[in-house]
């Protein structure tokens, strides 16, 4: 029995040794203890088995011991043994000798025979083992106790440094640390580590990078949550292992230095400096900043600081730079300054140049930033007081981080069943929240333990938000899960990003940042409000910058692996924790709990995708409860006050939620890096354009919304873009199959089922999309709101709120109108009419006069549509863009019925579209006369249609071939139309290949019922060749430029770089196409692998770089054109927004906008765009020592051979009516 | 399972053939030496490797040689053909309609025709077609030659169907083949060699066809007699006794078909041709690995009782999904998988299928999986029997 008892004793000991609060670590720690017994098992419940195996043995011992008991005088109490603890261990050891004597006595008592001998032997063995055990336990306990303490003292590799440290520790107990530091700083780095720190190539290098990223993120995270001791501990552990030390980088040491500096812990700071030197680094600005900051906080004497500064100067670092190029928060900066002032009392930190004094000097923007002319810009139409209260509202929304919006779905009748379901759901949620908090606490303890073992873990990230907030976030995720589930990877990523956003918002609330923001914003509003005057005339961004210092350093985004790992950990917690009764109907608590979420795999061909899928019963419950609210993140909803002006690549738009100036794939950092590196004035054009686009106030078109909602809550109307409710989904045949149905029949049934399911699923996703949009519209009805904008990597602009904006479908656009009205003026009504005709798509080839005449002709229908949209003749429903047409009909009706249309105040946006905008830019670049004429760059009485032009040209070629006897050409007679070639021509600008073009044409040919289908393949093959030939004929310059761009990109990518350029407006562009970098996140329910194509450490993806460059370059031009137009329109006081190449303004202002648009197009293309590009690329990719390489030389040749241009006179554009129409 | 080749013990046959390569004379002598009846080498004079190019197939179309460099194996050994015919002929009542995939030089075709069978030769390589057609004429017209690739029948991309891929409906209609009900006999036997590339893809495609009764299986329980890679073949026939090879594919095939290994033949007995009918040089093909590998002549006959009340072409994909899901974590316990497969109470199911709680996936025989599936399918009182969703599977193979 005693063996058994010992086992228990050991277990008890194990408990006693544990720090309270992390019982969950037991399972993991059981292993080494078990090892003592020499029996290590890999089974799931090893203790159990051990005990059972020992049983027979133990039974025998029990018998023996019972006989021996009476003989024994002093028996070590079981109880004490069980409760043996660290303090008692030595005592237990010292009780040994008397017991040995005891053995002698026992032998003397005549317990003769084998039994006695055996018993004796047995006991001796056991005692020996016990001794051993105790010794081991003691060691272990000591170890554990040591482990409990975090490492402070560094383990140094360099003997000299270590000796020095020891010496100081032992002999100078006073405050030698300042001396130490100066000594350390003076010492040159031990080893030149520069060379060996080059990352190893290949996958090993990538993995190493991943680990580094994670470690750095961990250290920074610890400092962030004020746990520098933990960061220090992990750093010491990692530093102490020679192999891992190689993975450590200077920023890691700096992160910990920074942490100690903030705390003012000088001793630990010096320890880190020891390690830093030991690793062979020389301190940089950040390290010095930390040291000085720490000294500033501790009020160190001047001489130390002076020596430090001197050393810094010797290292070639400028004192001024401490204040300009190190990002520190205000408090830290004060500490730093106080330290420096001590050494140099006269020092004053360099004032950052006043941003408003710097002006962009680009020739394209000269007019905009011209100081001589007073700047005018559209103001908000609201008074100051109103705007201030709007700001307060938006601020409270963003502080709450989520917005709850009522759904526009028809309310269910509150039957008993519904109420019951809601109650059940409520109960479940309360329980889940508690459970989640509990499990999250345990997870956190686990991660903390991992960190104590010296591994970088998620611990600091789990400290960022409270458990309650995490739980709330998780429950929100659960609520929004679609019935077919979501892939674990994307779920994890979303969760991680949301946590980051919340964390940023929370940090901003901590200091008095919010109050400062409010003060500054109120001041800023004086410029925007309708009833206040500001003396100096400035653009909103300039005004904002003039109002205060540049903002504090922004929160760096977390590396993608950390984001995903964090999200995955939380998703796992969700899967494990959230359970519901197996049968919801049964109310007993005895009912078995089943998980709500399942982790299953989906098989795509040979790939597996892990999916989290909600239990159907849970979905059923949600459907029955039919709760009528939905939750959005604050940044997904339009803003309630004018957005913050963009002043830098990461500050602008929402008040608190972080927003990037340039949206990009998660995990790409090169865009941000480029933007940050370029001089601030270079970005002014883009910043101002985006600020102004965001400053346009919007409101909901209530009448259209009413109509849409009416259709939406009834049966929907897919033809008009109103998705139908699920009840309208096709039903599979209900009847059960007859018993003897043939397999074929069954297969038929299956196909039918699959079809129904597919349709239903598509309907569901459309419906959800519309539900979000309409609910938000309903939420914002009777309100004024703003859509903050940002841009993609080519400079194309987009509104930030995803669900409800002016970029969407016809339906989405029709719901919006300008909040600010403008009288129609003399020609406004005509523009409205033309716009309406444009929306119907009926008179595309007619002149403006003809379109106007047509509108007058159908005025009766227009009025009828406006008055009785759903009951009348429904003329509007036949239009290309029915909802916008309807909204326009209503506007026209109002204007016509107003006494004087010219004074009618209109909120309606009128659009002007570029005709095949990409080709317009190409034609202008190449000065193609024929091409320019066909895309309306040349004045003409009637709008030209490039598609018809190409079709005609193709027909010419076809006839020639047919005469030559080519069979396909003969078959195609009479089938070549505008429609067949349109899509291909449209997309050719955006780099469609022959392959893609053939597929497009094949589709068109299949639609032609009388075309002999057996020729489709051959004919499409033939046609796509002819379309490309025709384009070549018409746009000769275009094709040459396309080819030049593509070839240059290919050669650049071949030299190992991604293609970069700068748009005429100054935005730096880099193509984020690289070979996929695989990131693997192990452990947990599933290993996640994801590839990141934006990783700059990988080689560029040559094909993508090559194919992407021509369209991306053209997009960067059209975005420049849009921004120029926008800025100049604002200068003239117009309201302007855009959907890429579709420009919107008030009806009264269309002529002005048209004029600006043409002027800016001419000015843009008057720049030597291609030569500038060539020069930039040569400088960027063919300079320096690289020139000697063959590849670079070939690239240089290519770059220098800029295509020749044609003879087209660009000035003609100014008089072309149909350029944008 | 090892079925002796009619007359000759298979070991003997193999040793007779191994290493013989394509040198006919040598092989002839070897065969004599091993005392294989001389008539087995009959027809040798009809065939000579040099014959092919000299037949003047003309220039192969330029597009052909450009886009396909894949090479194929062909049966060129008359003795092998003879053996195969003997195996295929089998019982007296068996059907005598053969569909030969990629006959190439037509050695087996000839043997089959001589035996009096009706043969449909689906040849994907145009260069062989004239030769095959002439073969038909010489031997009395019981041969149809179609330019078609059997393994590319009924492409799933719904694009243009251009030769050599065809739809089975068109093919069978042109050939006048009537559909036989599933419960009846075998409508035709398919003979051929599995494509070395995409072997697994083809195996999956065929499985989908069987279970959904589409493509060739619309016409009844078509019997496949195919040469399959030895490794792949072992996988098909694996069960819990050799758990390393056991996988979802094995279960699905064994549930669907009776699998018989008829004969094994070393790689070296097959000739390799590039796409335009050129004999490939032995040097480049005879890498060591290939020589040691064998091809297994395997018969896959769909089971008459494959479809039951609960496993039908309507829900077969759920069965597929169940198996894939199970074999994703193959060492896990069945009960753990049941939780993420079906909302039906896992213990009930275990009880009904008489499995223990500790049963692992790799301990389940194919029939156990089928029973498990059927048990869940017919469980009462659940509105939703599977957590599986069509969305999750994207069957484009």
Written account of the structure:
- Chain A: Residues 1-27 form the signal peptide.
- Chain A: One of its GO terms (biological process) is transcription initiation at mitochondrial promoter.
- Chain A: This is DNA-directed RNA polymerase.
- Chain A: Its main location: mitochondrion.
- Chain A: PPR repeats lie at residues 249-283.
- The complex is a heterodimer of chains A (1221) and B (397).
- Chain A has six domains: 114-145; 159-189 and 204-343, no CATH class; 384-638, no CATH class; 702-736 and 765-786 and 799-908, Orthogonal Bundle (Helix Hairpins), CATH 1.10.287.280; 929-1034, 5' to 3' exonuclease, C-terminal subdomain (DNA polymerase, domain 1), CATH 1.10.150.20; 1042-1215, no CATH class.
- Chain A contains 48 helices and 23 strands.
- In chain A, the strands form ten sheets. Chain A has a three-stranded antiparallel β-sheet with strand order 2-6-5. Chain A has a three-stranded antiparallel β-sheet with strand order 11-10-14. Chain A has a three-stranded antiparallel β-sheet with strand order 17-23-22.
- The model of chain A is unreliable at 1-56, 73-101 and 192-202 (pLDDT under 50).
- In chain A, helix 10 runs antiparallel to helix 11 and helix 44 runs antiparallel to helix 48 (1190-1200).
- With 1221 residues, chain A is mostly helical.
- Chain B folds into two domains: 14-47 and 315-394, rRNA adenine dimethylase, C-terminal domain (Helicase, Ruva Protein, domain 3, Orthogonal Bundle); 62-302, Vaccinia Virus protein VP39 (Rossmann fold, 3-Layer(aba) Sandwich).
- Helix content of chain B is 37%, strand content 14%.
- Chain B has a seven-stranded mixed β-sheet with strand order 4-3-2-5-6-9-7, with helices on both faces. In chain B, strands 1-8 form a two-stranded antiparallel ribbon.
- In chain B, helix 5 (78-89) packs across helix 6.
- The longest helix of chain B is centred in the middle third of the chain and has 14 residues, at 199-212.
- Residues 1-69 and 282-286 of chain B have low confidence and may be disordered.
- Classes of the chains: A mainly alpha (1221), B alpha/beta (397).
- The A-B interface holds A 483-485, 582, 594-595, 598-605, 608, 611, 613, 615-617, 620, 737, 742-744, 746-747, 749-750, 753-754, 757-758, 761, 1002, 1016-1017 and B 160, 162, 179, 181-182, 212-214, 218, 307, 312-317, 321, 324-325, 328, 339-341, 343, 345, 383-384, 387-394, 396-397.
């Amino acid at each position: 029995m005693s063996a058994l008892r010992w086992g228990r004793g050991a277990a008890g000991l194990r408990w006693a040794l544990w720090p309270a609060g992390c019982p969950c670590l037991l399972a993991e720690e059981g292993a080494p203890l078990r090892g003592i017994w020499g029996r290590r098992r890999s089974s799931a419940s090893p203790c159990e088995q051990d005990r059972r195996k020992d049983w027979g043995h133990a039974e025998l011992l029990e018998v023996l011991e019972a006989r021996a008991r009476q003989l024994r005088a002093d028996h070590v109490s079981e109880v004490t043994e069980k409760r043996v603890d660290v303090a008692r261990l030595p005592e237990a050891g010292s009780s040994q000798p008397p017991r040995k004597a005891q053995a002698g006595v026992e032998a003397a008592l005549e317990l003769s025979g084998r039994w006695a001998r055996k018993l004796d032997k047995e006991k001796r063995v056991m005692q020996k083992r016990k001794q051993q055990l105790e010794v081991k336990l003691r060691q272990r306990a000591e170890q554990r106790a040591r482990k409990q303490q975090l490492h402070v003292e560094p383990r140094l590799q360099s003997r000299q440094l270590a000796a020095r440290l020891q010496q100081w520790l032992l002999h100078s107990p006073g405050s030698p640390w300042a001396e130490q530091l100066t000594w350390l700083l003076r010492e040159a780095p031990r080893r030149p580590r520069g060379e060996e720190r080059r990352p190893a190539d290949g996958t090993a290098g990538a993995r190493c990078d991943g680990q580094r990223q994670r470690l750095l993120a961990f250290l920074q995270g610890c400092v962030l949550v004020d746990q520098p001791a933990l960061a220090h501990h992990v750093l010491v552990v990692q530093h102490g292992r020679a192999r891992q030390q190689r993975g450590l980088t200077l920023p890691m040491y700096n992160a910990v230095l920074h942490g100690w500096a903030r705390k003012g812990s000088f001793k630990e700071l010096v320890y880190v400096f020891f390690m830093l030197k030991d690793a062979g680094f020389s301190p940089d600005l950040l390290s010095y900043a930390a040291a000085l900051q720490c000294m500033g906080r501790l009020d160190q004497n001047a001489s130390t600081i002076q020596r430090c500064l001197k050393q810094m100067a010797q290292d070639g670092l400028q004192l001024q730079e401490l204040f300009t190029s190190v990002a520190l928060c205000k408090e830290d900066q004060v500490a730093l300054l106080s330290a420096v002032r001590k050494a140099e009392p006269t020092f004053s930190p360099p004032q950052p140049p006043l941003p408003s004094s710097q002006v962009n000097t680009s020739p394209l923007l000269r007019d905009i930033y011209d100081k001589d002319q007073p700047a005018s810009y559209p103001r908000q139409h609201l008074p100051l007081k109103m705007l201030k209260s709007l700001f307060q509202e938006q601020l409270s929304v963003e502080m709450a981080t989520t917005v709850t919006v009522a759904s526009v779905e028809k309310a269910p009748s509150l039957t008993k069943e519904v109420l019951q379901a809601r109650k059940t759901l409520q109960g479940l949620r309360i329980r889940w929240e508690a459970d989640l908090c509990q499990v999250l606490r345990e997870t956190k303890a686990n991660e903390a333990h991992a960190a104590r073992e010296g591994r970088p873990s998620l611990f600091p990230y789990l400290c960022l938000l409270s458990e309650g907030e995490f739980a709330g976030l998780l429950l929100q995720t659960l609520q929004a899960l679609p019935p077919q589930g979501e892939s674990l990877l994307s779920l994890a990523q979303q969760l991680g990003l949301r946590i980051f956003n919340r964390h940023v918002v929370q940090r901003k609330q901590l200091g008095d940042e919010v109050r400062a923001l409010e003060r500054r914003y109120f001041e800023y509003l004086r410029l925007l409000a309708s009833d206040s005057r500001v003396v100096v005339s400035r653009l909103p961004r300039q005004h904002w910058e003039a109002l205060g210092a540049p903002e504090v350093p922004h929160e760096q985004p977390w590396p993608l692996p950390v984001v995903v790992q964090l999200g995955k950990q939380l998703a796992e917690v969700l899967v494990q924790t959230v359970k519901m009764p197996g049968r919801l109907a049964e109310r007993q608590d005895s009912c078995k709990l089943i998980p709500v979420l399942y982790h299953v795999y989906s098989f795509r061909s040979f790939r597996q995708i892990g999916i989290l899928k909600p239990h159907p019963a849970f979905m059923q419950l949600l459907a029955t409860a039919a709760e009528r609210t939905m939750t959005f993140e604050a940044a997904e909803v339009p803003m309630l006050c004018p957005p913050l002006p963009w002043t830098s690549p990461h500050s602008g738009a929402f008040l608190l939620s972080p927003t990037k100036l340039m949206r990009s794939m998660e995990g790409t950092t090169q865009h941000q890096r480029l933007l940050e590196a370029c001089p601030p004035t270079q970005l002014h054009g883009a910043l101002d354009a985006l600020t102004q686009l965001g400053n346009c106030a919007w409101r909901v078109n209530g009448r259209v919304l009413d109509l849409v909602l009416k259709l939406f809550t009834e049966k929907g109307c897919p033809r008009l873009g109103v998705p139908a409710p699920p009840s309208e989904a096709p039903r599979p045949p209900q009847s059960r199959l007859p018993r003897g149905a043939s397999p074929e029949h069954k297969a038929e049934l299956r196909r039918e089922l699959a079809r129904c399911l597919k349709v239903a699923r598509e309907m569901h996703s459309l419906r959800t999309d519309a539900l979000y949009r309409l609910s938000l519209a309903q939420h914002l009805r009777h309100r004024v709101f703003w859509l903050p904008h940002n841009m993609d990597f080519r400079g194309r602009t987009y509104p930030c709120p995803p669900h409800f904006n002016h970029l969407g479908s016809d339906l989405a656009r029709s719901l919006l109108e300008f909040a600010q009205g403008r009288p129609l003026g003399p020609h406004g009504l005509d523009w409205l009419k033309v716009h309406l005709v444009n929306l119907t798509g009926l008179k595309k080839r007619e002149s403006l006069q003809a379109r106007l005449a047509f509108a007058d002709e159908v005025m009766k229908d227009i009025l009828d549509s406006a008055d009785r949209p759903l009951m009348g003749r429904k003329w509007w429903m036949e239009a290309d863009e029915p909802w916008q047409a309807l909204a326009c009909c209503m506007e026209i009706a109002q204007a016509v019925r107003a006494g004087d249309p010219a004074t009618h105040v209109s909120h309606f946006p009128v659009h002007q579209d570029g005709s095949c905008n990409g080709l317009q830019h190409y034609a202008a670049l190449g000065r193609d006369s024929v091409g320019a004429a066909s895309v309306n760059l040349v004045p003409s009485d009637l709008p030209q249609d490039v598609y018809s032009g190409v079709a005609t040209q193709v027909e010419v070629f076809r006839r020639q071939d047919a005469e030559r006897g080519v069979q396909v050409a003969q078959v195609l007679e009479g089938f070549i139309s505008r429609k067949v070639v349109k899509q291909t021509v449209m997309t050719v600008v955006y780099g469609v290949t022959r392959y893609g073009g053939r597929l497009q044409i094949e589709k068109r040919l299949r639609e032609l019922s009388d075309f002999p289908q057996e020729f489709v393949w051959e004919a499409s093959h033939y046609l796509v060749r002819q379309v490309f030939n025709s384009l070549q004929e018409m746009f000769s310059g275009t094709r040459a430029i396309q080819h030049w761009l593509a070839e240059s990109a290919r050669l650049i990518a071949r030299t190992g770089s991604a293609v970069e350029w700068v748009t005429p407006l100054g935005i730096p562009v880099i193509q984020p196409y690289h070979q996929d970098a695989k990131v693997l996140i192990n452990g947990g329910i599933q290993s996640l692998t994801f590839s990141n194509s934006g990783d700059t450490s990988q080689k560029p993806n040559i094909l993508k770089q090559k194919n992407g460059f021509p369209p991306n370059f053209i997009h960067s031009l059209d975005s420049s054109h849009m921004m120029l137009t926008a800025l100049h329109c604002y200068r003239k006081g117009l309201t302007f927004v855009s959907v890429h190449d579709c420009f919107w303004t008030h009806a009264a202002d269309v002529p002005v906008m048209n004029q600006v648009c043409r002027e800016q197009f001419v000015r843009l293309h008057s720049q030597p765009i291609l030569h500038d590009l060539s020069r930039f690329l040569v400088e960027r990719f063919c300079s320096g020592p690289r020139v000697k390489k063959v590849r670079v030389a070939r690239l240089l040749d290519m770059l220098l051979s800029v295509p020749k241009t044609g003879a087209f006179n660009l000035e003609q554009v100014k008089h072309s009516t149909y350029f944008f129409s | 399972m090892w079925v002796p080749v009619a007359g000759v013990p298979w070991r003997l046959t193999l040793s007779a053939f191994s290493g013989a390569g394509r040198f006919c004379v040598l092989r002839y002598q070897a065969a004599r030496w091993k005392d294989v009846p001389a008539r087995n080498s009959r027809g040798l004079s009809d065939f000579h490797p040099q014959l092919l190019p000299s037949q003047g197939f003309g220039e192969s179309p330029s597009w052909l040689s450009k886009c396909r460099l894949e090479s194929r194996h062909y049966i060129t050994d008359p003795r092998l053909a003879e053996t195969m015919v003997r195996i295929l002929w089998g019982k007296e009542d068996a059907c005598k309609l053969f569909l030969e995939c990629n006959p190439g030089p037509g050695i087996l075709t000839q043997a089959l025709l001589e035996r009096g069978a009706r043969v449909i030769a689906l040849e994907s390589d145009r260069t062989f077609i004239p030769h095959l057609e002439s073969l038909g004429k010489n031997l009395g017209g019981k041969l149809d030659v179609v330019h078609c690739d059997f393994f590319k029948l009924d492409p799933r991309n719904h694009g243009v169907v251009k030769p050599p891929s065809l739809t089975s409906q068109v093919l069978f209609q042109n050939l006048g083949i009537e559909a036989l009900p599933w419960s009846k006999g075998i409508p035709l036997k398919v003979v051929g060699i599995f494509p070395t590339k995409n072997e697994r893809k083809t195996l999956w495609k065929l499985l989908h066809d069987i279970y959904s009764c589409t493509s060739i299986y619309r016409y009844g329980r078509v019997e496949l007699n195919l040469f399959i890679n030895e490794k792949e073949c072992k996988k098909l026939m694996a069960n819990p006794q050799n758990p390393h090879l056991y996988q979802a594919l094995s279960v699905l095939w064994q549930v669907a078909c009776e699998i018989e290994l008829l004969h094994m033949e070393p790689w070296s007995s097959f000739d390799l041709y590039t796409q335009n009918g050129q004999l490939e040089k032995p040097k480049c093909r005879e890498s060591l690995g290939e020589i040691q590998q064998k091809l297994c002549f395997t018969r896959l006959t769909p089971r008459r009782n494959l479809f039951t009340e609960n496993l039908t072409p309507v829900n077969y994909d759920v069965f597929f999904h169940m198996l894939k899901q199970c074999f994703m974590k193959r060492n896990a316990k069945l009960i753990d998988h049941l939780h993420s497969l079906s909302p039906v109470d896992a213990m009930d199911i275990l009880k009904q299928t008489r499995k223990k709680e500790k049963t692992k996936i790799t301990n389940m025989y194919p029939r156990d999986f089928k029973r498990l599936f059927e048990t869940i399918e017919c469980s009462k009182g659940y509105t939703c029997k599977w957590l599986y969703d069509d969305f999750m599977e994207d069957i484009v193979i």
